[in-house]
Amino acid sequence: MRAGQIELVTSRALFVAAAALKRHHHQPPSIPKQPHRTAPHRRHGLPAGAMNRQSTTFARSPHRARRPSIASRLSIAASTVELGTAADADAAAASAPGERQIDDEIAEIKRYEDAAREQARRKARRKRAAGVYERGRPGWRYRLWASYDAAQGWIVVTFIGAAIGLNAAFLNIVTEWLSDIKMGYCTTAFYLNENFCCWGEDNGFGPLNYLLYIIFATVFAFTAATLVKSYAPYAAGSGISEIKCIIAGFVMKGFLGFWTLLIKSVCLPLAIASGLSVGKEGPSVHYAVCTGNVISRLFAKYRSNASKTREILSACAAAGVAVAFGSPIGGVLFSLEEMSNHFPLKTMWRSYFCALVATAVLAAMNPFRTGQLVMFQVKYDRDWHFFEIFFYIIIGVFGGLYGAFVMKWNLRAQAFRKKYLSKYAVLEATLLAAGTAIIAYPNVFLRIDMTESMEILFLECEGAEDYQGLCEPDRRFWNVVSLILATALRVVLVIISYGCKVPAGIFVPSMAIGASFGRTVGIIVQALHEANPQSVFFSACKPDEPCITPGTYAFLGAGAALSGIMHITVSVVVIMFELTGALTYILPTMIVVGVTKAVSDLFGKGGIADRMIWFNGFPFLDNKEEHNFGVPVSHVMRTSIVSLPVNGMTLEEIEHLLADDKYQGFPIVEDANSKTLVGYIGRTELRYAIDRLRREQPISGTAKCVFAPPPALSAVTPITPTVSVNTDSMSSTTLDFSRYVDGSPVTAHPRLPLETVLELFRKIGPRVILVEYHGKLTGLVTVKDCLRYQFKVEAAESPKDDHRILEGQEQLWGVLRRAGNWVSGRVSSASGGRIRLSSQFDESSAGRNRGGGAILDGDEDRFTGHVAQVYDVLIHGLLSRHALLLAAQQRLRLGEARGRHGAGVDVDIPVAVVRLVDVLMMETCVVEVPLASAAVKSVHI
């Protein structure tokens, strides 16, 4: 009995839509009779166990039947359109806005409902488009429409792929130019980067070059962080974690919008050029998916069907990786392995075609003018030897250890950032860029862009440019020291940089770390071979030919680090193969990635994207996880439920329930006493129905609401809620919302294992699973309930010393505050009290300063406020030639300005700006310059 029950609860929900659609394909069109309830049943309820077996798992009585599911009702509506009984064009068109709004609001998309909705759309559109038949056969207009509808998906994918390729080419060009401008500019044509300019003699390490390098890095990071904070906060970070949740069916408003796409595309080159240890490959997936979402919304077929839109988003993710690495096949495998939990064959073909188009457009644009799709694309002609497998294993072990170490400490850095630095996003990114520039410039492998660094580390020494003596035997020791130092510093910088509020990926930084470590191993192996050429260990080497290629070790190290941080295997092997085109190095790559995978699994499952999903608390069920809880669903379900009776509630009472945001849906029961389950209605559907009804005509709050069709109602319910007047009793208005009630929600027995419930959520993706016993509602369970229990079990099995971690965070924050106070005191003392920096870095101090009239930017970020005020002064001062010529040698001082409270305000100015004004100004004067800010009326210079 138990096995049959479990089989029934899984098969009913999975095949309800398929059965309905199959019936209409193989039977003549007809209007099926919809089962309904009798009036006595609605008035007095039913005894326990009186639910129909087809509509619920454990009810046995055949005396009453629950209404068909949403999929079945949509199929019924489609068949009535064919017969002309429900061919109201206005009503048919009215359903689309409701569906779009529902798809944008609900927490998860039901794939089987969307499949039935798509089938109904095709049938209705076919009848409307083929209004004129030629001798009983579809006319040319219908055939034309059918061809367009069939090709619409490929048209959308083509447009999206072309747009992604163009955007990637533009970003590559801008990123390379901005990265080179820190090192200097082309005097003959400033718009040329280093590769296309006839550069003169390099003056090497100079104080002025060092200073300009730091200034450019700081300005780039400040600009990127300010734009992200002001216009599109979702543009920060990588975006892969959120996209995985979106493709799985969850909705995040604005995350894939146009503004996010625009700001991500503008700020990504700035973030990369700032020198922060972040990459563009993760953000490439984000802007590619944003592009797909924006373009697909132009087509009604994808606006009204969220599941089909998510197929397009999976294809866009593949195209994003394809243009980032120049690897179309690797992009498809990455989307399959990492991004999508539902990847049918049709989605794979769409992903393949989208990646192909995007890569072809990028190759046609040729952004690097070298024929390469990415800067670090290389070719290897030499073969490898079996004795090198030992060193390959060392590289693989490093990749696994690197991934585990970075994920552990990056999550701690993220927790510290979320707790203490969330109010200072712009200041944090700016200081990180300045600190990174100060540390990186002395080291040649940290100074240049990471992609350029990998290009150099991947190269073979023979026939290639000897960059900074990398291939000179006399400089091997210093090269090894420099590479080890670069590896260690880059690891620390990645830990503290990944997660700051700029577009930031972790692919390329990890590959750069692995490349520097791998090159170190290669140089050491090469030195060992040259020192002991006659050793048995190197007997496979030919005497007159180079035996060891250090560039291949760097290449394998990059793959190991990427696999270690992301916990992906097959796609890494294919990506690295497409980067080199060398079939001979597939086996070494597989060995390295396999060792990395084995080491990584010792420290936990899931890569950095999965850890970030867990850290942010996203309701995501990973298909790769296996659980064995050993408890029934009754241990997890919610027992305190707000349900709606079939009738008896007024519209005012319903709206009072909807005013509380904690209810995402309501089970429908016969009455409050019997709790006999009838169906389920979502909060969004009910809210949309009421709003639409009020727009059409005024409705009193005392109107009665019915959530089941009366006996005399036609089998086919209208698309909009029915409004009827009952003149037999008290002439009250009755609102029928039966169109929006799911008559056969997914249900489970209280003793059903929690593992089976998780499988139901993974396979069919319902928003909620109702728990019933003999037809009576006993509780409900959501994805969040399951995850909350999972986290509780994991925390009990692996307890952590959170108190010690919190103490460490408090101590670190105390050190930062003391450092800030010291800097503030030094600046105030050096300026004679005319300039003061904020000496308090906590939120309460920021609130007190604002209340006292301090000029801030409105978001507790004092640094942004300072720069905004200085910007006002400089711009308005430069507009007046008289003010510019007269203001000299007088330090810039914003004082005695009238704030909003009418009191004098001393505006804090960074010392660097004061020094800059000292250099620019020529004479001494006192000039009153009007400001655009309403908080400051004038500035005395």
From TrEMBL:
GO biological process: intracellular copper ion homeostasis; intracellular iron ion homeostasis
Pfam families associated with the record: CBS (PF00571), Voltage_CLC (PF00654)
Membrane topology designation: Multi-pass membrane protein
Intracellular or extracellular location(s): Membrane
Keyword vocabulary terms for this entry: CBS domain, Chloride, Ion transport, Membrane, Transmembrane, Transmembrane helix, Transport
UniProt cross-references to InterPro entries, sorted A to Z: CBS_dom, CBS_dom_sf, Cl-channel_core, ClC
SUPFAM superfamilies, A to Z: CBS-domain pair, Clc chloride channel
UniProt xrefs under CDD domains: CBS_pair_voltage-gated_CLC_euk_bac, ClC_3_like
Superkingdom field: Eukaryota
Domain CBS per the UniProt entry, residue ranges: 637-699, 737-798
UniProt region (Disordered), positions on chain: 21-70
Main location: membrane
Family: Belongs to the chloride channel (TC 2.A.49) family.
Protein name as catalogued: Chloride channel protein
Organism: Purpureocillium lavendulum
